[in-house]
Amino acid sequence: MTAPSDLLPLAGFAVGITAARRADELGALLVRKGAVVRYGPAIRIVPLSDDTELHAATRELLTEPVDAVVATTGIGFRGWIEAAEGWGVGERLLARLRNTNLLTRGPKAKGAVRAAGLCENYSPVSESNAEVLRHLLESGVDGRRIVVQLHGEPLPYFVDALRSAGAEVIEIPVYRWVAPADPGPLDRLIDAVLDGTIDAMPFTSAPAAASTLAMARRTGRQAALVEALSGRVVAACVGPIAAAPLTTLGIPVVQPERARIGALARALAHTLVDRSPRLSAAGRQIELRGQAAVVDGELCEVAPAPMSVLRALARSPGRVVSRRELTSALPGGGEEHAVETAIGRLRISLGEATLVQTVVKRGYRLAVQRREGAQRP
User: Fold this and answer.
1) What one-character DSSP code corresponds to residue 152?
2) Rounded alpha-carbon distances, angstroms, from residue 149 to 4, 89, 117, 335
3) Exposed, middle or buried: residue 231 (CB in 10 Å: 0-12, 13-18, 19+)?
4) pLDDT at 328
5) Strands 68-71 and 145-149
6) Number of domains present in the structure of the chain
């Protein structure tokens, strides 16, 4: 057990992270809040420093003046400059950028631009590509030559809107997302979501969300994954672009007000804590967390089978739940004697046998006195 004074906001919860870039940063934030973190990278970033497509696009930019350049990410802009330096055209590229209208999507892109000795002409407060696009269209782009630095995947709506308005667009593919070299960790992470040992999945990019769903689809588990993410497991995304692959399938998504890793971790923590069921039983205050129960402020770790039984009992506090019902709640099902074993382990984990009552020949129930605004277990 963990004493109340040591209880962290995410103690008792397990979180699965699929990110490639900044996975360690997000994981560290969640661990500091008490979560157990499991990693299953859904993508990997392939730098294009030696890519002929990026080289050709850069050469095209250098052949004739351009009217505007859009920097969408800090890591992408830095990678572009570093690649150009490797080709021996770094100074030429910086000179060209210095004499054009330079737009940055957010503070990280702005920071990379300034670190290169340049200064942006426009950066939206909203930090969104949509706002950059609106600014360009309102400024007039007909007949203008505009460079767009991509950020891991194409931006068709952005590029198409500019071309439809008469602009010539040069796309700069600085890096791209591909499938992970080893799909095993992601495969096991999806299994963990489905067997109930993962409570939340935060996504920091659309490619990671799409790749996770694609892996589940290829292995016949997409319907089960969508069901889990639509119910017991919290799906959280850093912003609407990252959320798109999930919302398209009707999966409800938690999003922070600002598209920041720290804000994502805080939003996820608040959601998990807010939806944790709370009740009173046998004079004790109980809170059900993902993989644990908090009894009178003390964290009690509970194994998956007993935890499943506890959740089933907490769905109808005080009602007698039959062994057959509890059997169906066990991970992978089982025999009725497995329920008896799980009940015994649950009582030991909670440290109080009287919390779960046996009703002879009928089943089991929580010794509930009153329900306190509990949400779904």
Assistant:
1) B
2) 50, 17, 18, 58
3) exposed
4) 86
5) parallel
6) 3
Q: Which amino acid is at 326?
A: L
Residue 270 and residue 122 share a domain: no
User: Of the ranges 149-158, 201-210, 233-242, 271-280, which one carries the lowest mean pLDDT score?
Assistant: 149-158
Cα separation of 300 and 306, whole Å?
12
* CATH code of the domain in which 360 resides: 1.10.10.10
Neighbours of 7 (CB within 10 A): 17
pLDDT band at 357 (very low <50, low <70, confident <90, very high): very high
Quote the CA–CA distance of 87 and 78 in Å, as a whole number. Answer: 14
With contact defined as beta carbons under 8 Å apart, do 44 and 180 qualify?
yes
The C-alpha atoms of residue 30 and residue 202 are separated, in whole angstroms, by: 10
Determine the average pLDDT of the residues in 216-237: 96
Residues 171 and 242 in one domain: no
DSSP string covering 287-343? EE-SSEEEETTEEEE--HHHHHHHHHHHHSTTS-B-HHHHHHHSTT---HHHHHHHH
**Least reliable range by pLDDT among 42-46, 148-152, 237-241, 353-357:** 148-152
Residues 6+ apart with CB under 8 A from 16: 37, 38, 39, 40, 189, 192, 193, 198, 200, 201
Overall pTM > 0.85? no
Residue 44 backbone class (left: φ over 0; alpha: ψ -120 to 50; beta: rest): beta
185/38 same-domain check: yes
Tokens of 75: 């890591």
For the residues 329-353, what does the mean pLDDT come to? 86
